[in-house]
Design a protein that fits this description.
Blueprint (H helix, E strand, L loop, with lengths): L4 H15 L17 H15 L3 H14 L4 H14 L2 H14 L4 H13 L3 H14 L4 H13 L3 H14 L4 H13 L3 H14 L5 H12 L3 H14 L4 H14 L2 H14 L5 H17 L3 H14 L4 H13 L3 H14 L4 H14 L3 H14 L4 H14 L2 H14 L4 H13 L3 H14 L4 H15 L1
Helix pairs in contact: 2-3, 3-4, 4-5, 5-6, 6-7, 7-8, 8-9, 9-10, 10-11, 11-12, 12-13, 13-14, 14-15, 14-16, 15-16, 16-17, 16-18, 17-18, 18-19, 19-20, 20-21, 20-22, 21-22, 22-23, 23-24, 24-25, 25-26
C-alpha cells in the first residue's frame, strides 16, 4: 500500500512556496494574489510546534495564521487534523467543511473526511467520502482499501471484495489487498477463492507468515492433509520461534496416527511455549502422553502426564490416562491411588468409578466395593455397555453366575463389537453349563480379536469336552 506521506510533505512545502511568493498557488480565483507575511510567520511557528509535539501551541499558531489568510487550504487541513487528534470533533468537522468548500473536487480532502467519519464510527458517511475520493481520483488506492475495510467491518463481504479488487487492479503487487480479499471470500464460504487469494498474498510477500497460517486452517477444513502440512511448515520456516504452529502440526500428525512425527513437533511446542500460557503447554503434554503411550514409551508418557498435572492438577484426562498407564504397567497401588483422587475430586466421574471397580474385579479383591463402584458409574450412565460388562464380571468373580449372565448378555447387546465382553459372556455360559453358548461367544470374541490365544484355548477345551 502506497502511503501519501510524501504527498503531505509536498503540500506543506508548497504552502511555504506560496506564502513566500513562489510560482505555485493554491488560492482560489476569488482571493486576491499575494500573501501576508504574518500568515507565513504564524504558519511556520505552527509547523515547528506541531513537529515538536506541542499540539495546543500549534493550533493557536494555525488559528492566528488563518486570521491573515482565511482561505488557505493547507492551514485548514493542519487544523482539521490536529482538532481530530485532540478529540475536538466539532471544530475538526468545521475545518473539513471549509476545506471541501474551498476544494470540492480534491480527492485527498474527501479521503481525510472519510477518515474523520470512520474515527467517529459513522461508517456510512465514511464510505460516502471514500467513494467520492475515488470518483475524483479513480486511481486512489488508499480510498478503495479504506472502503474495503469498512465494508468488511459491516459484513458486506461482496462489496469489500470489489473494493480490494480495485486496489489489486491498480497495485497488483499489494499483498494486503490479496489477503483481505481472501478473508472476505472465506466469510462468503468460497473456500477455493479464499485459498487462491491467500496464495497470491504469500506470493506477493513470501516472508509474511499470516497467509500461510490461514492457508493451513482452510486446507485442514477441506481435509487436504498434505497442503495443510505444507502451509504449517512454510509458516514455521518464517517464524521458527512461535510454539503454536508446532502444536498445530503436531496435532495434525497425532490425528493421522503418525506419532513419530507428532512427538518432535509437540516436544518443540513445550520447548518454545514456556511463556505461552498453561493451556498451550497442557495441550502439548496431553498429546505427548497419549502419543508416547501409543508408541509403548510408558516412561515418557508418565513424565508427560506428570508435567501436565504440575500445570493443572485438576486435569481429569491426564490423571485418568496416568492411572490407566499405571494399570498397564501392573502398578496397581499407583493406579488405585490416582482413581481415588479422581473420584474424590469429581463424584460424577463415571469412568473412574467403573475402572477402579473393574480393577478390583480383575484381581478378585474388594468385590463388594467393586460392585458398589460400578453401580455408582451406572447410576450416572445407565446404558453404558462397558459399565454393564464390568458389573457382570464383578458378579462372576463373586460367584453370582445367574446375575453375571444377565448383565453380560445385556452388555453384549449394547456393545456388540468388544471382544472382552464376548469373552466374559462365554465364561459365564461355560460356568452355567451352556457350552454351545460359550463356544459361540468365544468365537465372536476371537473374530474381533484374532490374536487372543487364551480364547483359542477355551474354544479348543470346550469342544473337547463336548466330544467326550
Amino acid at each position: 500500500m502506497k502511503i501519501n506521506k510524501i504527498k503531505l510533505l509536498t503540500l506543506n512545502f508548497s504552502l511555504f512556496t506560496v506564502l513566500l511568493g513562489g510560482c505555485a498557488t493554491t488560492r482560489t480565483a476569488q482571493e486576491p494574489a499575494g500573501y501576508d507575511p504574518r500568515a507565513y510567520f504564524h504558519y511556520s511557528a505552527g509547523a515547528l510546534k506541531e513537529h515538536g509535539g506541542l499540539v495546543d501551541d500549534a493550533i493557536r499558531e494555525y488559528e492566528t495564521a488563518l486570521v491573515y489568510t482565511p482561505r488557505e487550504p493547507v492551514i485548514h487541513r493542519h487544523l482539521a487534523v490536529l482538532y481530530q487528534k485532540k478529540g475536538m470533533r466539532k471544530e475538526a468537522l468545521n475545518e473539513f467543511t471549509k476545506l471541501i468548500k474551498l476544494e470540492p473536487e480534491n480527492p485527498e480532502l474527501h479521503f481525510l473526511l472519510g477518515g474523520f467519519y470512520e474515527d467517529g464510527k459513522d461508517l456510512r458517511k465514511a464510505l460516502s467520502e471514500y467513494k467520492r475520493a475515488t470518483e475524483f481520483n479513480p486511481a486512489y488506492t488508499e480510498a478503495f482499501f479504506a472502503a474495503g475495510v469498512i465494508h468488511s467491518n459491516l459484513g458486506m463481504w461482496k462489496e469489500a471484495v470489489k473494493d480490494y479488487e480495485n486496489v489489486i487492479r491498480l497495485e497488483p503487487d499489494s499483498p494486503y489487498s490479496y489477503y483481505n480479499t481472501a478473508y472476505c471470500y472465506s466469510r462468503l464460504k468460497n473456500i477455493g477463492q479464499a485459498i487462491l487469494f491467500y496464495e497470491k498474498a504469500a506470493e506477493a510477500e513470501p516472508h509474511w507468515p499470516s497467509p500461510y497460517f490461514n492457508l493451513a486452517l482452510l486446507h485442514d477444513s477441506m481435509g487436504d492433509t498434505q497442503n495443510t502440512i505444507s502451509s504449517w511448515e512454510k509458516f514455521i520456516a518464517i517464524v521458527p520461534s512461535e510454539p503454536d504452529p508446532y502444536l498445530e502440526l503436531g496435532y495434525l500428525y497425532f490425528r493421522m496416527g503418525e506419532y513419530g512425527k507428532a512427538i518432535p513437533n509437540l516436544t518443540k511446542t513445550v520447548e518454545l511455549g514456556k511463556d505461552g500460557g498453561n493451556k498451550l503447554l497442557a495441550t502439548a503434554h496431553l498429546l505427548l502422553g497419549i502419543a508416547y503411550t501409543n508408541t509403548d514409551n510408558s516412561s515418557e508418557a508418565e513424565r508427560s502426564y506428570a508435567k501436565l498435572l504440575e500445570i493443572d492438577p485438576k486435569n481429569e484426562i491426564a490423571r485418568y490416562n496416568l492411572a490407566a498407564l499405571y494399570d498397564k504397567a501392573s502398578r496397581f497401588e499407583d493406579a488405585e491411588r490416582e482413581f481415588k483422587v479422581l473420584i474424590n475430586a469429581n463424584p460424577k466421574y463415571a469412568d473412574a468409578y467403573n475402572y477402579l471397580g473393574y480393577l478390583y474385579a480383575e484381581k478378585s479383591i474388594n468385590l463388594d466395593e467393586a460392585v458398589r463402584l460400578i453401580k455408582k458409574a451406572l447410576s450416572i450412565e445407565p446404558n453404558n455397555g462397558y459399565f454393564i460388562d464390568s458389573l457382570g464380571w464383578a458378579y462372576f468373580k463373586k460367584g453370582f453366575y445367574k446375575e453375571a449372565l444377565k448383565e453380560l448378555e445385556r452388555a453384549a447387546r449394547l456393545t456388540a463389537t468388544d471382544p472382552v465382553i464376548y469373552e466374559h459372556l462365554g465364561d459365564a455360559y461355560s460356568v452355567t453349563g451352556n457350552q454351545g453358548g460359550a463356544i459361540s461367544s468365544w468365537q465372536r470374541s476371537l473374530e474381533l480379536n484374532p490374536s487372543n490365544e487364551n480364547v483359542k484355548k477355551k474354544i479348543d477345551e470346550a469342544r473337547k469336552n463336548l466330544t467326550n
